Amino acid sequence: MSDQFTFGGDIVWQPTPAHIDRSNLKRFMDLHGIGSYNELMEKSTGDVAWFTDALLKFLDVQFQRPYTQVIDLSDGIQWPKWCVGGQLNIAINCVDKWAENPATRHNLALIWEGEEGTVRSFTYEHLAAEVNRTANALRSLGLGKGDGIGLHMSMTPEVCVALLAIAKIGGVILPLFSGYGVSAIVSRLADANAKALFTADGFYRRGKIIPLKPTADKALAQLPSVEHVIVLERVGNDVPMVNGRDHWWHDLIPPQSNQAAAAPTAAEDLLMIIYTSGTTGKPKGAVHTHCGFPVKAAQDMAFGTDVHPFDPAQGKPGDVIYWMSDMGWMMGPWLVFGATLLGATFFIYDGAPDYPGPDRLWQLVADHQINQLGVSPTLIRALIPHGDEMVQKHDLSSLKCFASTGEPWNPDPWMWLFNVVGKGKRPIINYSGGTEI
Length: 437
Known about the structure:
Blueprint: H1 17-21, H2 24-31, H3 37-46, H4 48-58, E1 69-72, E2 81-84, H5 90-99, E3 108-114, E4 119-123, H6 124-140, E5 148-151, H7 157-168, E6 172-175, H8 182-191, E7 196-200, E8 202-205, E9 208-211, H9 213-220, E10 228-232, E11 246-248, H10 249-252, E12 270-275, E13 285-289, H11 293-303, E14 320-323, H12 331-342, E15 345-350, H13 360-368, E16 372-375, H14 377-383, H15 389-392, E17 401-404, H16 411-421, E18 428-430
Parallel strand pairs: 3-15, 5-6, 5-7, 7-10, 10-11, 14-15, 14-16, 16-17, 17-18
Antiparallel strand pairs: 1-2, 3-4, 8-9, 12-13
Helix pairs in contact: 3-4, 5-6, 5-7, 5-12, 6-7, 8-9, 11-12
């Protein structure tokens, strides 16, 4: 097995002229009379204010109060101020904008499958109603702008709803990996002086119930600032509930109104603190704003993986993107914010990708007609030994491209994904960046 790529080898994939012409990136370039990719690179890096302004308009990011200046570098390039004077609550753009439009309200926003086989889907109208109920529930508990609220849940629709509801009330999202131990939870919630936490009774992995709330309870014993805990009944196991602090999701949220106003937030108001992985030392909390992380997610999703929303003019269904992730890794919030800001559909799965069989991932792609698939090299290496037939038994014709981040590829798994799964026709997009970017 080859350990590393050599440069200067054969080109294995090139986009066709038709592929280029229908891409989001080409449409953006045509709007601005840009004739080549090199010209775009020069213009976007040479005039960051122009590019940012053009991007916000291309993505139709609607500000509740327009900004007066795209970028202010008066404090130095290391301390930029973005969208100066602008008022922007990103939840309006991710949910309300689509739910209030008769042409888009019935489009699918979210598809979910649990390891046990349960499938649920949400239109933008349905998603908006659940986000509003959850926002109202949070407000009923006295939570609002600037309050840190943790997410300690597996990948369920409710964790996505909670993410967007926290944004809507102007709170600060604190995503936590569902597999964290007590000390990791304590340090992250204490840093932000968290006031509340979403968690669940547990989740399924390989057919077994993994308890979640007991770990949260041990952490909460060291977190006096956390006054409220909202608990999702995911698996139905018995968990202790603290009177006055703990609230079942099914008791607190469904009775709330499905209408809720978004908190007025400045474009650079704090939206989320998400921690780096620790590859460069102790994990550091990266601060993200309403006009930062979500817009960058949508930009990269639109230009990098070419995700298209539903096209009402031509009646074309929108793309379905799935990136295997947990909400505690930046790709979880990236998936939710990016897809909903574009008005596309995202898929999430709560389970092991190779259970009950090693073809579960490919079955998910086929069953839900996934178009863009985000994977890790480690996952592909683990699936290769099960044989090509695990792939070939499923219809994967919906796939348009693969994407990968978080670790480098070595040639053999890359070529297996490209040739066996992608049939030599679908590119693998290497997505470089970091939690803090």
